Amino acid sequence: MADVFYDYKHARGDFQESVVEDVKGMLSLYEAAHVVSEGEQALEDAIFFTTKYLKLAISSGNNIDPNLANRISHSLEIPLHWRMQRAEAKWFIDAYEKEKDVNPLLFELAKLNFNMVQATHQADLRNMSRWWRSLGVATKLNFARDRLVECFLWSMGIAVEPQYGRCREWLTKVMNFVLIIDDIYDVYGSLEELELFTEVVERWDTKEMEKLPYSMKICFLALYNTTNEMAFETLKDQGWDILPYLT
Questions:
Q1: Is residue 23 one of the residues assigned to a domain?
Q2: Where are the transmembrane segments (predicted)?
Q3: CA 171 to CA 187: how far, in whole Å?
Q4: Residue 191 sits in which domain range?
Q5: Residue 44 — pLDDT band, cuts 50, 70, 90?
Q6: Nearest-angstrom CA–CA distance, 213 and 4
Q7: Domain match, 17 and 63 both
Q8: Quick one: three-class SS letters along 78-90?
């Protein structure tokens, strides 16, 4: 991909005037260059050049459309490639509404799509909240972080499409247990208790948990049941036994 950018540069290494004069094109070049991988010097050069040019363009006030200037400032803060899709969708819908040549049909479809996907995510979050309350770990382990919504938002950053609800569900559960276990190691357990807890998890046997403190028993049994439930659902729906890869 990096080779494409050489077509827009002079032999001396700088970008052609036709590219520089197109502010929208420079913004697109800036965004596209952020798919850079290590060692792609052409993309690194494009990021450096377009960042410098776009900052100069909005600071000089050279008759740039205010909406375009707003898009440039937004992109310079964090490139599109690094942002969460659904948050960006809302931002772009609001920004598009201010454009002079708004397509009413496209605008209404965008809002409808956003609201439908948002409704799916809200339903997913309600299901996760019910699971979290019924699990009871947050109330029993009051030293641990209760970050259900943050974990769910993290899962949305990975699997935003409505049809991937199961993926969001499992990612949310996994991240909640990561936080709880992290707090057990950092805040709660003594060295001896943590060594026992590690051994029980590695053995993956409920008979071994009798020697654990109460809070660690709660955590391990919740982890054990949730992991086995995920493995069972996969075996039932897909015919794949994933338990050996989870434990």
A1: yes
A2: none
A3: 24
A4: 108-245
A5: confident
A6: 61
A7: yes
A8: CCHHHCCHHHHHH
